[in-house]
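Why this split exists: single-chain examples teach little about how molecules sit against one another. For that reason, every record in the complexes split bundles all components of an assembly together and asks for one structure covering all of them. Below is a record exactly as it appears in the raw files.
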Amino acid sequence: MASVELAGLTKRYGALAVVDRVGLRIEHGQLVCLLGPSGCGKTTTLRLIAGFIEPSEGEVRVGDRLVSSAGWAMEPQKRNMSMIFQSYALWPHMTVAGNVAYGLELRRLDRETIRRKVQAMLATTRMDAYADRYPADLSGGQQQRVALARALVVEPETLLLDEPLSNLDTNLREEMRFEVRRLHDEYRYTTVYVTHDQAEAMTTADQIVVMNAGRIEQAGPPEEIYYRPRSEFVAQFIGGTNILRGKGLDGRHLSFAGRALRCSGADVPAGGTIAVSIRHHDIRLLAAPPPGAENVLEARIARQVFLGSVRDYLVEVADGTQLRVVAPAEHSIESGSPVWLHLPPERCRALAG
Amino acid sequence: MTTIAAPLPRGRPRGIDLSRPVMLGLAAVLCVLIVLPVSQLAWHAVVDRDGAPTLENFRRLWSDPAFVEPMLTTLTLATSVSVACCVVAAPIGWLVARTDLPFTGVVRALVMASFVTPPFLGAVAWEILAAPNSGLLNQWYRSLTGAGTDEYLVNVYSMGGLIFVIACYTFPYVFVLVSNALDRIPSDLEDASAILGGRTWRTAARITIPLALPALLAGGLVAFLQAMILFGSPAILALPAGFHTMTTKIWSLFQYPPKPGLAAAAALPLLLITIVLLRGQQWLMGRRGYTVVGGRSGRPRPTALGLLRWPALGLCLAVLACSVFLPYGALVKTAFSRVPSQPVSFDNLTLQHVRFVLFEFSGTRLALQNTFLLGVLSATLGTGLALVVAYLSGRRAVPGHRTLAFLATAPVSIPGIVLGVGLFLSYTRPPFVLYGTLWILLIAYITIELPAAYQQLQSALKAVHPELEEASRILGATRLQALGHVTAPLLRSGVIAAWCFVFIGTMRELSAAIMLFTADTKVISVVIFDLNESGDLGAISVLGIAMLLITFAVVLLVNRIPGLGGWRPARPGG
Ligand SMILES: Nc1ncnc2c1ncn2[C@@H]1O[C@H](COP(=O)(O)OP(=O)(O)OP(=O)(O)O)[C@@H](O)[C@H]1O
Ligand SMILES: [Mg+2]
C-alpha cells in the first residue's frame, strides 16, 4: 500500500539544516498535517517527499519503494503523486478544463475518457460551469478548486498540499477545509497537508505533526496534541496556553507563587525548574476562596475584555506572573478585584525540557 | 501492489548529470564573447609592437594634445547633453505621467519614435536641415529675411549643434526612467500631503519631484554615457567642424596606418568610465528610498493643469518637432527630391534616389543582405543564448549560475567602439582569423545585445512562477515536457520581444561595425556612413527610410506569425 515513510530525513543548505532528521510514517489513506511556524521547513519537507529536491541524508519510501536517498531523488513525474501549490500554479494559458485534463493527457488516455473524467471531476469540485474560463478570470476560491481538481483527477497515490487555503479569506477558508476533508474521504489517498494554521490542522487532519526549526516536536492525533502537549513550543503553538514556571517539589508537585501545585504529565524532578502548561479556559475564576481545595491561587484582575461569547481576563498572581483566563461572559468581575484561581491538577501539564 | 525495483545505488544520480558540462560550455561561450576582447584590449594597451610591456601608449594619451583635446571635448559634450536631456525630459515626463495633459498617448508614442531612431540617421537629417549653406532651415531663413548667401541661422557642424542633435535622441532615456518612476509613485503619498493642506503645486514640489529625483539623476548618468560612447553623430557632425571626440579619435587610429595599441589605450578610459557610471546608476535606482516608490495603489491622480494644458502640449510638441517631425520630414523630402534644397513641387519630385540605391549602387544590395542576415542570426542566437542563461540563473539550475548571469550582463558596460577595438585585436591574427568575415560582426552584435535580451527574458521568466513548472512535473511531465508545455508558451511573448529588441539593435548598430567591416561585409549603417562622406544625402535618406521600413516590417511580421502570437494576456493565478 502507498504509505509514506520518512526516515532520518535531512536537508541542509550550507551548514544550516532546514529539515533535521525527520522520521515519520504515514499510513495509507491517512491525512497528516505538517504544522509549524513560518520558515520551520514544512515546504522543504513536502518538496523532499515530492522529489523536487534531494535529501542531504535519510530516505523517503512510498509503499516499499525507495524514492529518495542521500543525494538522490527519483524524478517527481515517476512518483504518482499530486501536489497543490501555495500559489495554486494554475497555467494561465490553459482553460480550466485544459488545466484539469493535462495530467490525463500525459498519461495518454484516449480523448473520450479524458473528457469524461474531467467532466466528472469538475462536477465533484463544483466547477463544471467554468470549464472554458481561464484561471485569471476566476476568484481565489474557484482557482483553489481547480487546483484541487487538477491534482485529484489523475488519481494519485499520494496528495501533497502546501498551504492550499492561505490565500483565501476567512469564510471561504472554513468552507474549503471541509471540502478538502470531504474529497479526501471520498478518494482515500495518502495526504500530506502543510499549514501554519492550527484550526485548519485540527479540522482536517487524522494526525498532526508539529514542526519547529526543521524538527518534529510532537506527532499525534489532534486531541492528543491539544490535551497532552509534550513541550512548551507545542503547548504555545496549539491553542495558546499559560506557562507556569516553578521549582519541582516531588514527582507530582511544583512550587508556584508561594503555593504547591499538583500537576500531571511528565515527571517533576525535585529541585529543578519545571514548566507547566494550563490552557486559558481551564483555569476557573472564583469570587471567594473555596474551602480546602488544592491548586488554588490568590490573584487580582489586571484587565478584562468582553469578546461576545466569553470574557478574556488578565490576572496577576502573588509573584507578579500574569496569566490569561477565559471565562463565561455572563458575570463580569471588575478590574482590580481580588479573585481566586482554581487550576485543576489534571489540566496542569508538566512539560518535558 | 507489487514492489518496483530494488533500492537504487545510494547517493548516485541515475544517468549523466548534464548540469556541469552545460554550465562550463556556456561559461566558455560567454568568456569568448566578453572576456577575450576585453583582455586583448588591456593587453595591447600595455605592450609595444614587440610585445614588451610599456606605458608609452598611456603617456601619449595624457600628454599629446591630439588626445587630451578630444577627451575634454567628450566630457564637455556628455555633460552638456546630460544636462540638456534632464532639463527637457523631466518636465515632459512629469506632464505625461502626472498631469491631465491632452494626447499623452501620442506624446509617449512620439517620444518612443525618437527613441528608436538611429542617432546617426538623426544626425544626417539634421545635416539636411541645418548645414550652414544647404540646410533647409537656413535657406528658409535667408528667403524670409533676405539675408546674404553666406549668412545662416543655425550651424549643425559645431559643438552646439552636436550637443543639440545628440540630446534630441538621448532625452528619451531620461524620459523613460522619470516617467516610470512617476507612474509608480502611489497617489497616497500625494494625497497625504494634500490632506495636510498642501496645494497642488506645493505637493508636486515637495513630494512628487523629490521622489522622482533619483530616477532623474540616474537618467542623467545614462544620458552622459550615451553621449560619451556615441560614434555616429560626432563622426557626422564634429569631423566636418574640425574637432574630434574620443570615439572618432579611436576610429581615426584605425585609419591607415593603424595604431591598435594606442586605440586600445584610448578605449580603456571609456570602458572604465562606463563601468563607474553604470554602478552609480544602479546604486541610485536600487536605493531603499527609491524602491519604496514601488507602491501598489491604483492609478495616480493627475494634477489639473487648467488653461496651461495647451501651452504644455505645445512645449512637448516643440521638443518632438526637433527629434521627429523636422528630421523625418527632411528625410522624406530629400529622398524624393531632385534638388533637396528646393521646395516640394511636382517638377522636383523624383524616384532617382530610390532607383540609385536599390538598383544602381552596387553596395546596397550586399549591405541589405548582410544586415538582414546578421539581424536575424544575431536576434535568434542572442535570444537563444540569453534564454538559456536566464533560465539556468533564474531557476538556479546549475552551480555557478551567478557567474553566468554576471557574464551575460557585463557587456552592457562595454561601449560599442571599445568592443569593436577589442574584437579587432582578438580576431585579426591566428588562431582565430575572423576579421573580414560576417562572423566577427555576428559576435559583436550578439555581445552588444546580450544584456538587453538577458534582462528582458529574465524578467519574463520571473513572472513564470517555478511552481507552474513543478505542477506539471508532479503530474507526470519530464523536465523537457514541462518546459515545452508550460514555460515556453508563457515565455513566448517575452522571447518575441527580446528577439525584436536584438533585431532592431543590430539593424542600427554602427560604432562596432565601423571598426570591423571590410568591403565584403558592409552593413546598412556603414553604407549610410560612407554615403555621408561622399555627400549623397538623397541616397542616405532612401536607405535610412528603407532601413526603418524593413525593421518595422520584420517586427510586425514576427509578432504576427501564427503560433508565435502568444497567449491571452492573463494574470498568473492568485
Ligand atoms: N533553496 C534554498 N536555499 C537556501 N535556503 C533555503 C532554500 N529553500 C528554503 N530555505 C530556507 O529553509 C527554511 C525553511 O523553508 P521552508 O520554505 O521549508 O519553510 P516553511 O515552513 O514552508 O515556511 P512558510 O510557512 O513561510 O512557507 C527557510 O529559512 C528558508 O529560508
Ligand atoms: Mg512554505
